[in-house]
Amino acid sequence: MKFRKSFRLFIALALMMALFGVLPVSADTTVLFDETMAHDECLLDYPPNSGADPLSPCQWDMEVIHATAAHDTATGAGVKVGVIDGGVDFTHPDLAGAIDVARSCSFIYSTTPTADPQEIANGDCSNKLAVQDLQGHGTHVSTIIAARENGIGIIGVAPEATIVALKACTIAGYCFADSVAAALRYAGDQRLDVVNLSLFADPYLYFCANDAGQRAVLLDLQSAARYAQQRGVVIVASAGNEAADLGHPVEDDISPDWPPDSAIVREVHNNCRVTPAELPGVVTVSATGVNTLASYSSIGSPVNVTAPGGDAPQTPNTVFGRGRILAGWSSTDATGLWEALIGANRAVVSGGGRYVWISGTSMSSPHAAGVAALIRDAYPNLPQGAVAAMLASSATPMTCPANWPANDPRRCTGGQGNTSFFGAGMVNAEDAVE
User: Fold this and answer.
1) What is the C-alpha to C-alpha distance for residues 275 and 179, in angstroms, rounded to an integer?
2) Whole-angstrom Cα distance, residue 91 to residue 353?
3) 11-38 pLDDT, tens per residue?
4) Which domains, from first to last, does the chain contain?
5) 149: closest CA among 218, 225, 206, 71?
6) How far lies 306's CA from each of 19, 127, 259, 283, in Å?
7) CA 134 to chain centre
């Protein structure tokens, strides 16, 4: 597998960060934690969490967004959330009863580069084997949104929502634009309530309107998103892990990322857009660690809200999990990431299910999508635009950080409730449904 500098999926960052952040065990010890060990460590290292499942004490992120408190009012029951990603582990115990298998579909084609043969369905939604997650990213995202409260593992933001897995990303972490657009249109056809995209559409980080080929792809993605939105779909997307200012882009040095070794360094301007983060009407989400903006998070005027994505540099080495996000992982990971994360002491087994600590805007976006699902549960008649507006208006306002490092080129502008780092602020599940 080829790992690339990107934020299309967390596959590269997860493996690279597996090299960092030793947990409170001896440096020469590798541990696959069980739920009791992880539970006890997290009780010592994180603020109290009122969640009832074994790994709830590790879910500092759910306390930040007041998810548990919201469940007295809304749980996401009856809400269908599409996860456009790398598929889902249909057998994960924390998603038992949570997946709409009938509607789940793979949009990986015979012509899709880097696809595993098993993933290819050519839009035939009867091929459910093609939707199975062969890595783990899609399962991680899905469990952040909708892990059941069932005495196993963790509890999701919307623990009674239903996941519709829409595979648009290959085992290698490429999410080509034709697959993403097809998945968005299908989400519209199915009139899903919310869709999460923790990715960018390959092969360009920025699609520039002054290039005819790129403009055509950008217009197709815009059309697909608009089609879904017109059919009631709230689209939520990650801002990205490039630590870039999306409102003032300067350079793209990773595009095109396919075929291999075809990337060039090019200047980019405001006629160039990251998709889906900069598509009209999309709720775009930056990421925080336990204290402030994550070191990797992109920022800028397209950011609508922020949510926890985890950030190990903000957390001491002695803290269990280093302030990353704990969520599920696939039992059919064929990439070696599960083994790498065991080697980094960042893997847990609970109830027979796999869980890992990783970080990224890929993790922040599903927190916001989960809150959107709670809004849809509490206010089922709201149009999609009103749900997106409520997600922002109910967020906890945040101000620009004081004493921001001079060597970090990202600059926070704006005032409380509307900054380039955090948008309207931290998503707040309790306030969103009160």
Assistant:
1) 13
2) 9
3) 444 433 433 333 333 334 557 999 999 9
4) 11-400+408-433 (3.40.50.200)
5) 71
6) 27, 36, 33, 10
7) 17
Pairing of strands 234-238, 194-197: parallel
* Amino acid letter, 291: N
Per mean pLDDT, which range of 42-46, 126-130, 328-332 is the poorest?
A: 42-46
CA 101 – CA 163 distance, rounded (Å): 9
CA 106 to chain centre: 18
Cα 342 to Cα 135: distance, rounded to the nearest angstrom? 15
Could you please report the per-residue DSSP string of 170-227?
A: -TTS--BHHHHHHHHHHHHHTT-SEEEE-S--BT-SSEETTSHHHHHHHHHHHHHHHH
The tally of CA atoms less than 13 A away on the side-chain side of residue 43 is: 9
Check residue 358 and give its pLDDT. 98
Torsion of CA 55, 333, 65, 36, to 10 degrees: 10
Degrees, nearest 5: CA angle 154-157-162: 95
